[in-house]
Structure formats: structure tokens, C-alpha cells
Design goal:
alpha/beta; four-stranded parallel sheet
Length: 133
């Protein structure tokens, strides 16, 4: 796991519920981010998921070079999972994705760059699920 600097630029968040294989693929996909690993963290919230989902995150902690934080949230629902992630986030920017998404390699880098402009307060964009359209 990457060392934790005093300041991070962005905390990325994935909330998952019983979709272990999709989560594994998402974790691997995020390892390709172009933003330096010391500038970001990924918070993976296992929302009342089985042990194998939690194990996927633990395996990712040793497999990838970015900081990967595991949170177990036993209150069911995406709102509970997101609130748990927000409480754990260490960066001033929060970037949310899902276990069925594969962000572009420059996703986090582009977010940090765009938020450097003082007039930017919120970003959104198109998302294409791995399930297709």
C-alpha cells in the first residue's frame, strides 16, 4: 500500500454490495490512474456484504500501489455507505464511482485539475456501465 502523505488531493469512493467480481475489476482498473499514488486514496465501503467482498479489498491492498481503505458499513443502503466513506475521507475533494464502472486512467487527474479553478464547485459527467447500454 502507498504511504500516506500529510495531504491528499482527492479521495475516491466505491460503495459495493455483494458484487465481488465487479469490485475486483474496478480495483484493478483504478490502479491505472495517472494521478500520482501519493495524491489520492480509494475508500471501498463494503455495505453489509459477504466476507468474500471484504477479502477482495484486502487482496487489493497488497496488490496495488495506491492507498486502499476498507470500511465495513453494516447499515444497509447506499446513503449509509456514502456517509461512512465521507467520514473517513482525508482529502478536500471526493470522487465517487461504482463497482460496475471503469474510470478513464486520467479520471482523478482531470478532477484535480478542474477543481484548481476557483469557480468550480461540482463536476459530473457521463458514465457507461460495464453492463453496456
Amino acid at each position: 500500500m502507498a504511504s500516506v502523505p500529510d495531504t491528499l488531493a482527492v479521495s475516491a469512493v466505491i460503495c459495493t454490495w455483494n458484487r465481488t467480481e465487479l469490485l475486483r475489476s474496478a480495483l484493478e482498473s483504478l490502479s491505472k490512474q495517472t494521478l500520482p499514488v501519493n495524491d489520492w486514496e480509494l475508500i471501498a465501503v463494503c455495505n453489509n456484504s459477504p466476507e468474500e467482498t471484504r477479502r477482495a479489498v484486502l487482496e487489493g491492498q497488497s496488490a496495488y500501489g495506491y492507498r486502499l481503505v476498507l470500511i465495513d458499513e453494516f447499515r444497509q443502503g447506499k446513503c449509509s455507505a456514502l456517509n461512512a466513506a465521507l467520514a473517513a475521507a482525508r482529502a478536500p475533494l471526493i470522487a465517487c464511482t461504482d463497482d460496475d464502472c471503469r474510470p478513464a486512467p486520467d479520471w482523478l487527474e482531470r478532477i484535480v485539475t478542474r477543481f484548481a479553478a476557483p469557480e468550480v464547485g461540482l463536476l459530473g459527467g457521463p458514465g457507461v456501465s460495464v453492463f453496456g447500454l
